[in-house]
Amino acid sequence: MDVPNIRAARPGSGPEEGRDQDLDGLLGLVARGDQGAFGSVYDRLAGPAYGLIRKVVRDPAQSEEVAQEVLLEVWRTASRFDASRGSAATWVMTIAHRRAVDRVRSETAAAEREHKTAQVPIAADEVAETVEASLEAERVRRCLDGLTELQRESITLAYYGGYSYPQVAGLLGTALGTIKTRIRDGLIRLRDCMGVGW
Question: pTM higher than 0.70, yes or no?
Answer without folding.
Answer: no
